[in-house]
Design a protein that fits this description.
Blueprint: H1 2-27, H2 34-50, E1 52-57, H3 59-62, E2 69-72, H4 79-83, E3 91-96, H5 105-111, E4 115-117, H6 122-138, E5 142-145, H7 163-171, E6 175-180, E7 195-201, H8 215-239
């Protein structure tokens, strides 16, 4: 019963937040800080509705070194509400183009200045990546990417795709890793307190002087560090 009530409230919240977010976007279209405002708009009420307790230790994200590429693990659609708590100033996201057809959210996402990529069209995807490189270098705006490319459903990190790493190296900006504990298989939405979630950001990794040849090693290092961080957070929650 509690689960059904929460889903009904979440549906209502999603629509109301979408309307308010679109209004924000219309008032200041493509402002890169719209993403942060809309993320909070979705996240803060959702955490109360879902009964999730989020604890964030993200100083390296809040104090990010100018522009950067932010990479994070991607568990489920609930990531919108979980990561929405920590999206920093002037940070936009890269996502698949099909998101623009989601009523209200898609329009909000576009008006917030986020980057929509047609993954089925290599030429358009490459052109979008070039645009993000220019954004990182000249528009004081960071890019948030889920390098797995799809949801892992809490079953561990999937292999990373190269795009985020090529982008960071091409722009010469650091990579900031953001990890969330395994919450999607642990939360109990039929309980008043449905679970605890930890979010942690790691020290920035500089890419200045790197070339495309460094991408495989950089990917491997990032995945290993994020795996270790997620495992550590899961152990902390298990011991609590």
């Amino acid at each position: 019963m509690l689960f059904l009530l929460r889903m009904l409230l979440m549906g209502l919240h999603f629509m109301i937040a979408g309307v308010l977010g679109v209004l924000i976007g219309i008032c200041r279209p493509f402002n890169p800080d719209n993403s942060r405002l809309c993320a909070r708009l979705y996240a803060l009420p959702a955490m109360r509705i879902l009964g999730l307790n989020v604890k964030a230790d993200v100083d390296s994200l809040r104090n990010k070194p100018g522009t950067c590429v932010v990479i994070a693990n991607h568990q489920s659609n609930y990531d919108l509400f979980v990561f929405g708590n920590v999206v920093p100033h002037r940070t936009v996201c890269i996502a698949k183009k099909s998101l623009k057809w989601v009523p209200l959210f898609g329009q909000l996402f576009w008006l917030a200045g986020n980057v929509l990529i047609d993954r089925g069209n290599a030429h358009k995807a490459r052109r979008a990546m070039l645009t993000t490189t220019h954004t990182l270098q000249h528009e004081d705006t960071s890019i948030w990417v889920f390098p797995e490319g799809t949801r892992n459903l809490g079953k561990g990190l999937l292999p990373f795709k190269k795009g985020a790493f090529h982008m960071a190296i091409a722009a010469g900006v650091p990579i900031v890793q953001v990890c969330v504990s395994n919450y999607v298989t642990q939360m109990k939405l039929n309980r008043w307190h449905s679970g605890d979630v930890l979010i942690r950001s790691l020290a920035p990794i500089p890419t200045a002087g790197m070339t495309a040849d460094d991408v495989p090693g950089l990917m491997q290092a990032c995945q290993a560090q994020m795996d270790a961080c997620i495992a550590q957070m899961d152990r902390e929650l298990g011991a609590a």
